[in-house]
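Q: I have 120 residues here and want to know how they pack in 3D. Can you give me a structure?
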Amino acid sequence: MSFLYPTAFWFALTLPVVVACYLLKRRRKTELVPASLLWNRFLAENQANAPFQKLKRHTLLILQLCMLLLAILALSAPFFRTHRFASEMLIVLIDTSASMQSTDVAPSRMHQAHEAVEEL
């Protein structure tokens, strides 16, 4: 795979900026309310049993980083090189009008045009 605009990868330097903004945002202050005292033990047990709990807290950050990476990849215009390059490809147009069927050149102009194309 090659990239038409590899300089677009310089935008990857914005990834640390997104992470820094995420880390520096204000955290909500936790308030202890007496009615929630009954639920603290239950919530602590559930959080201890959830293996992806830390990942769940950072879901928005992960989504933002993935979207930024996809945008950078799209800006770089990736493409796959084929075995044949454009300089090796040749398009030939042959006139199929009635004048190509004339026999002034043996056997016909159409036949001679096809032979000339095959020699290419």
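Q: Anything worth noting?
A: Residues 99 and 109 are 8 Å apart (CA to CA). Residues 90-120 form one domain.
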